Fold:
Amino acid sequence: MPKKSNVTKRADGRWMGRAMIDGKRRSVYAPTQREAEQKLRALLSDADKGLTQPEEQRTLSVHLDRWLEDIARPRVKPSTYRSYALLIKLYIKPALGTKRLQKLTPGDLQALYGAMSAQGLSANTVGRVHGVLRSSLRHALDTGLVYRNVSQATRPPSVRRHEMHALDRVQARKLLGTAKGTRYEAMLALALSTGMRQGELLGLAWCAVDLEAGKLRVVRQLGTDGIFSSPKSRNSTRSIDLNPSTVAALREHKTRQLETRLIQGAAWEDQGLVFCTYTGRPLGWRNVVRDFKALLLKAELPEMRFHDLRHTAATLMLLADTPLHVVSRRLGHSSIVLTANTYAHVLPSQDKDVAARMEALLG
Structure:
């Protein structure tokens, strides 16, 4: 049981709370004194309830389970939580689950990353595993379970960024022409005119679309796991004005959907989705990508990802001299800086204009 405790400020600016529990010194760390006091109270409360496991006996598996439920679940989206849990189950626990937390070394993690790469797993998957370990071990450090975060001394493989492709104006019109009259006409029209993400398109419901006003609201998305959730970020929840041709495509799409609904009768499962299967259920991501690739092939257009339609929309908007902040808001980017960095190569150079103005002032 605890004998004494205190909270002090460290030389690095962090606050440290210390307590003697069962004859051993335990420490917690936080950026503010108040947070350190809260963490220390929680540690002492666990000790009073007999929940504090001796540090030298706690395994990585036990720690990850506690971190998932106590730290990750309350703070991240359900889809993110499920992703963390799956990465832990498939990759981390089989290799390192029985390893004692205090005995974990950078070499253990590096060996895991190497083994995953040798199995043919992508650098992105290895990087996500590294991210889970980094976050969970940072929590272990902050709560005094370990004396250092060993993930900081590792080097996961570099993630190769996808090369960005964008259709030009002629190609975009050709794609829309090829999709004319198909179930994907309205979806591609929306993707190319608004830059909506694939998940946002698949999660769109008719109740969020106002065809009379020519507007829609992005309020949810459909994940690759088939579960609906809130948009990617706070700025991703947004209102978008629609151009007349896209509104017309949506009207035609709605008419065709109503006809399909009548044909299906009792087999129709009404979920109010704008884009759905022939029985009203959500579309699968892979099926959409497969059909999109087929349309590209039919239109004799270059191979590209569905996500590149978003890049196409942004590129065409910027080439049409749309203000950067408007493009950023329309895309639902977290900040205008992200938009500027992503599409810096598209933005027209202002150097000549600036030079002319400076000449007028100083010449």
